[in-house]
Amino acid sequence: MRDDRFSFALVALYHSHRTYLPELRIVTVWAALERLFGDSTVELRFRVSASIAAYLEPPGEGRFNLCRQLMKLYDYRSKAAHGQEIKENSAFESTMEIARRALVKMIEERHVPSTEELRRLLFGWIRWKHSGQQSSMENSRRGGQPSHPLVRKVGLP
Fold this sequence. Notes:
Radius of gyration: 16 Å
Structural class: mainly alpha
Strand content: under 5%
Largest sheet: none
Number of strands: 0
Distance between the termini: 8 Å
Shape: globular
């Protein structure tokens, strides 16, 4: 998979474990998530949180709860980025687990969603699928047509 956003995120997650400062750790993981799921600086907290939740959870209570959790975790990122001391490690660990889930799903699907795909997923214009379901990318490699015109190849063999 060749996508600069994915590569940046993978390197950022790796380096987040190489520092002992919790503030740098959480800011680094959020930089990875913002690169994958953010598209502007306008209301970034909500946009990134909602996009991640839509990508990882089907519509419903689980998606809503994950979005709410992500917004709280983003508040830790903001505090750290603006110089406040972060004493607890649980915010980093929770953020890291969510980032891991997103990267694993991208690897399993062999696809990094575009900003447009994330918007359409958020508003129900693309059907949510669990990473275990056959992706339209796999369908395309077998000779079928992708199920959605926004599906794009990202350096697949």
